[in-house]
Amino acid sequence: MTFEKNPGIVSELKKIRKAQPDYPKIKDIMSYSQVGLYEIGFNRDGLPLFDPPMNLFGGAPRENRISLSQGVETYVPRLFGEDESRLSNMMRCIIYYESQVIKRRINKDIKVIGNSGILQDLVTKVNMKYKIFSYDGQIFVSPTDRRINQYGPIVYSGKKFEQIMTNKTGPSDGSHFKSIQEVDLGNGSFKVLIASEIDSYIDGNKVYGLKKGHTDNKKIREQTEGKHENKNSIDNTEEADVKEADVKEADVKEADVKEADVKEDNVINDDDKVDSKEGADKEGGSKGEEDDKCNGEEVDVANTEEEPELRNIFEGEEEDVIYVELKSMLCRGFKPGFFKLSPYLFLQELYSLKYNFWTYMFKIIIQCVFTNQKIIVFGIRNDSYKQLGIKLISLSTMIVFMRNNSPTHYERYKSAMDTINTELTKIIDSVEDGVVYQFDITPSQYHLYPLPQSEWKTELDKLVIKEFRDWREKGIVSDEIKEGKSYDRQLDSIANKADDYYLMKMIGSLEKLDLHDRIPYSGAVA
């Protein structure tokens, strides 16, 4: 079948102008690598290189599709105990940085310390609860979610996808990397220190040859041909001189668009609940959004070059490395031929298949904006947990697509900095020393309130780990931290006392969950 040029998309792309807000200046100042279950090292050794199987570009042949469910039977998720601080590793990393690197306390203008999720949740307004307290002149924000529902094939498949994309050990290993980033929100009064989990990275100079004309990994270069992206695409998307899309007529064979072995049109991923088709119908059919959508069904199946995804993305950058976010999703109704589309048109096809598309994509955009991840790799799977292929899309392309197709979400994106500044300022002005607060985020409101006074001391003893108190109050640093590593003694103690078959129950109090009665412990958890 032959598909014609879509003048609507060309017209919209030509409208991109300088209308973006200023976005935060993000600086990586320290990091830690989780090694298996217990050990962390204050280094970047755990940041894996993006190194996917080459046959996933453009869609994997049916006989070569990789299973994302293999190994799920022995998967044991990493759960957090009721008495475990969710900031423990970040605090240990701060100790190392202050005592061994800069030989002083971190900058006083860093007023808020926590995981990156707090910035994203303030913008996306998902249901979330945090514990907030002041210690040693700084506000700490700790999530309360213990991840007791992070089990089963959907969650596992996402972790398996990350493993495949980075050619590293399996999902049950538990290893991961977090960058401790200083975020300047641009208000001139305070900065935020966040711990951001980074899935992988691309080194354009040493690996892909995208900066100095190397020819390494030619396949990836061929998949990412396109116009040069501006040097600050993460915060100044509109300043990219977006060319008119050169949409060519294409003769796409029926085999290239052969429908995957699926039955319904829907998309789910690790972060979304399964959305039924009936639910979509109730909320307005397959769209489920109030935003206007580009019309046209199959007229857009053609390759264009309106946005680059990798090639020359590093030109003008101070660093050769860019962070990559890995996302796996089920997409019913997805056609393998869509992998051959330009990134922009690939997003348009996903938009047509997923009724809650913007709920999902908006979370990804905000996450990447506030953690400095410039490339998103979408992996599409089918109902049988077989990997159909992957598509690399730049964050700037996603922002352009959002601007053109969802004015409501684009306005929320533009006001994100103001939202975060406003709410964090309220928290800073309200929190008193020695008091532990709960901060509830819902789609309709933010609610900060103190816990009962009888709980303050117990909560503080749990939230502020002993090593951090010893350092900040007494200047004491353990030999382990001086050597650039640390161990999670709480989990180590639990594992040594527990029968392997019941480790899940010991760590996370999972009696209430309907799981396999005896799940073999693989030696580590994720």
TrEMBL record:
Q: What is its EC number?
A: 3.6.1.-
Q: Which domain of life is it from?
A: Eukaryota
Cofactor annotation: a divalent metal cation
| Bias type Acidic residues, positions | 297-306
Q: Which InterPro entries match?
A: RAI1, RAI1-like_fam
Single GO biological process annotation from the record: nuclear-transcribed mRNA catabolic process
Residues of the region (Disordered) are 220-306
Family membership, please give it. Answer: Belongs to the DXO/Dom3Z family.
Please give the name of this protein: Decapping nuclease
